[in-house]
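Task: fold both queries, return tokens.
Query 1:
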Amino acid sequence: MSEEINQRLAARRPGLESSAEIDPVTAGIIRGSFETICFEMATHLGRAASSAIINQSNERNASIIDANGRLAGLSVGIPQLLFISPMAVRWGLEFQQQDDWGPGDLFVGNDPDHGGGHLPDYTVYAPVYTPEGRLLLIAALQAHQGDTGGKDPGGFSPDSLDIFHEGLAIPGIKLVHRGEKRRDILDLLIRNNRLPSFSGDIAAMIGACELGGRRLEELFARYGSESVAAAVNFNIDETERRFRAEVAEWPDGAYEADVWIDHDTVGNRDVRVHVTCSIEGDQLTVDMTGSDDRPELINVWNTFSNSRGYAMAQLASMVDPGIVKNEGLFNAVEMIIPYGTIVQPPPNKPAALGAFHPACEIGEAICIALSEILPERASPQVYKLGMPNAVIGFDEQGQMWMDQGVDVRASDASATQDIDGWGSMCSGLGNLMLATAEDAESRFPVINLGRELTIDTGGPGRWRGQPGTLNVKKILEPTTAIAWMVSVEHPLRGLRGGDDAGPYGNRFNVGTPEEYEVEGSVRAQLPKDAVIAYQYGGGAGFEDALLRDPQAVCEDVLDEYVSLEAARERYGVVLTGVVVDGDLAVDIGATAKLRKELGAAKAERER
């Protein structure tokens, strides 16, 4: 059943009926209004929500979808998740008559087998009607929930065998009827969530969607509903036209890449994501055939909606950023996402962790494949952590608290052509705000002991990846810690001859005789004052490290991004002087000789 539903929901949709003619300027103004409304919805949610993951981390996205289920507008957010909501809304649209849709209604869904991303991501949506009573647009919000009512707090269970272990699956249900909240449904959702903050979060999502609906009604009054419909059609068609025009400039051919996940959560090794990007004229086809289909795999199943959304997030980053993000992107690209593989699993597979891996590997593989022809636009929109250390406990009143470990860090910030990796986060995290030490310590019984860049963890290249950080934290109460470690053996891939990033790592009970390295997946009981140390992987390098400006390597050593040993062994740069004295200098002659030797040795290995 799931494959048939996915194909039906993903199928190309017709335009809206409209009797109006629209000019490009007016269509652009209405499109800008959509973006402003989405931004206002997302901001309202962030300010009104109760949980830190929404009101501090900004893990929420807003979009406007038309009555045929096409993405008409969106706001800034987390790029990979910007394209997920339409599939959940399309499922709801199929039941307008049975569910008695009308003005003032509002719905929620999260079921991966019915258009959703994964269970923690709730999509709340409100149909918006014209003054004549015609359904024209839908205001939608997606936000990550800290718990889903599954067997483990937080919804991320490394040993889940099916989706029912992960929590409450909601294909679609009405939360508000004609402006009146449905107490029975809200009570059901709140009762199936461990976090007391959830009631505030769902109320904030309802309020933000209702705000979006009012703003869209004001837009109808100002421009007329027929003009708004015409603008939606114009903007979607224009996006498709512009995307295809870019593809037509690319060289025809098939470009392939493999990316690997170390293992699933029970130890099945080397999980493969394969992508072929084929170009013929103005048609781009992204084919994920060849991705892993082993039925015994556990917790590396990405939902169909997430797979197409993560793929599009990467593709959208590799074309002119001025191209408007809407349904036209999907109209311009054919995606082949084979059923029964980790990128479109059979029904009821556990999918919460799949939204990390293999979801990220889809974007990474597309980036690697297209970097052959688009080096100037190749930047992986991915993060490679399996999952952060989720630390869970209970207060004196028996209320659960959970530090989800989304702390400020430097990780996965790869180099791109002409630019070294920089900043704390990869570009794929968008407007996500990671938790500061002060914020986490005010909410949870934890003390952050250190967050320091780790030398030599940025992948060497002509342009260097940003180093990752080592985050060290003390837990002040006995807790349960859950983690899944990947990207140790298969870290972020270098591009066009650049080196891979430094790997991830994780240690529990640091500084005690019980200290150990976390391998695979783990659910551990940690005592009071236990120290955990999470090593985040760095960004990958771009092009051969032997091409890097030797003076830039010298400066990297002075900045403690690169060690003296790595400068010599990985960049082929010979330095004189002493680091602490600040008098390092490049030995030009010795560097040229060493680079010639290293280049010859590399060429011999690659034969």
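Query 1 returned. Query 2:
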Amino acid sequence: MGEDQSLIIEIELVFRASEELASDTERAVIGEIAAAGGALVSRCRIPDIAYHAILARLPVAAIRQIAERSSTGISGLDAVMHIRPQSVALPVEVDDTVEQAGLIPPPPGNGEPILAILDGVPVSAHPLLRGRLSVDDQFNLEPLAVVEERTHGTAMSSLVVHGDRNIVEPPLGRRIHCVPVLGEADQFPQDRLVVDLIYQAVTAMRRDADPTAPSVLIVNLSLGNVRKPFQGRLSPWARLIDRLSHSYGILFCVSAGNHTERFNIASIATMGQYEATTQPDRAKCTLEALSQLVASRRLLSPSETVNGITVGAANIDAVSDGQRRTARNRVDPYHPMVTANPSSSLGPGFANSVKPDILMPGSREHLTMVASGAGLSVQPAAPARPHGLKVAAPPRGGAASMEHYTSGTSAAAALASRTAHRIHDALETEYGEQFLALSLHQRAVILKALLVHTAAWPADSAELIRGVLGPADPKQHVRQRDNIRRFLGYGVVDASDAIYCASDRATFWAAGSLAPETRRPIVVPLPACMSGQALPHSVSATLAWFTHVQPGRQSYRSVRLSLLTANDIDQFRVSLAKSQPNTHQASRGTVISRRWQGSKAPALAANSSIELVVQREPDRGARIDELVPFGLAVTVTMPSVAEVYSQARARITPPVRVRARTR
């Protein structure tokens, strides 16, 4: 690149609480930018997250001086905290375009949207999306986005509305609010800071005066900054999500990010040898290779968010067996094991919290050969018909009704947002005003709890990770679980179980608010039909909330809740399950999920119950006087005992209708 050319960089300033000091600092930095032959492009200051940054265009010579860490010029200013390349959006992987087939249900009515997508400009006239999106082009990005290149927003909108088109599912019954934040070539506009874009987009939806989407309580964010992997310090984008979640009562579903770079499998010489290796040996050598790269496959900003749900990609799709057999020169590393895709980013999150929170389908990712000889070098293959999620595609060759295949954590996050919407629909249908009368904050945290509630570690993949990453000493079980949750989080979500009940399972939910240092007992009835039955049975509970945050302080997560049990759980003959993060590991974020399992016969009376306690611990740092809304989901199950659901429902006062699915 020539010395006379220029590049755009982001300069984050040391935050000054005083507006006067902040203005003086900003003027000094802008002056230095001008002295270096550059120019101000944009600026943003958000006191709520202690963020102050400048977007500047600088000549190559000035950038070289910064790279050399010169003590003079811009990099030598005390007011400058970080200098980074401009944020770049992670591209979505798509391939294998086909014509759309099948009947398309009519679009929904004009009900208020509860879900928003912040993404690229969608092809809103696509037959699968027509009449289903309310596009609010706040930043005038639509004119810059060539229709044939509107891949990211179209794919994510399709997944949210319809799910994976390899499966026949009804579309969502409400319109989706869509705010484009990617423009030309599915990238962030060059004249705005990404934190500023997201801040403006969300506050416009929920501001007090003339909000654009006042009912939105789920936001899909299938985006990540390729140039900002998580390194232990919260990014401004993640801090923004945390603040907006808490302020407005919004559940953000955020993609963990993908790492599609090549990696070496040293124990295998050729692709033919790799393909011939039987399971579980093939899965083991793949995981051994990835375990050497843990430090370089971290979460991408903003997926380290504390209040949001971070979604990784599981190797799940609904491709038919016939299509699966058409894969050529690509190898499935893990099947039949269900686990995280090789490209899916790994945790943990901020303060060693559980991240990703959950895994959702991201296609059954295959690997393709890059080189072989002394060792095999492989790379995640692009999605295609043999392994991918089918979504709406921009027009090709004059044909408007097109589809293609996608994969990865962006797709997984979109499916998580869709699942949260469907959970809301089910609660609205069955509880009506009893549910809708709750505040947006309370509804959002209930959805958060129920979305994570069914997540579980697949036993075979958890055991593989334990065996490969160790430690081998069984006494080191905490470190073993640390390694498992790094890949799996709380586990793979069962979307059907999150939405429906079954005859041998009953799920309860509760919402409330806690003042400082208070507690709330929650009584869960135990069906008498489970008494005397020496069968596997369990109780699982998931607690979720949004914390107030204090940027710049060690006590960033200032509100901490805990989930306690009374001694009466012993009558149910269960103990804490070992197949999930332990209580200490799960207490570092804003979701706590616990499971108790047993197989000995419980001794129950007709009115037996267990008591769970939601407790607000002393606030960290400054006292937070405001009430903190929480959502709690509890499930009692004894597989094959069909009266569990009906007896549990009969114990609820007042009785409610719960949509049941009989297995």
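Both queries returned. Flag for query 2: The first helix runs from residue 19 to 35.
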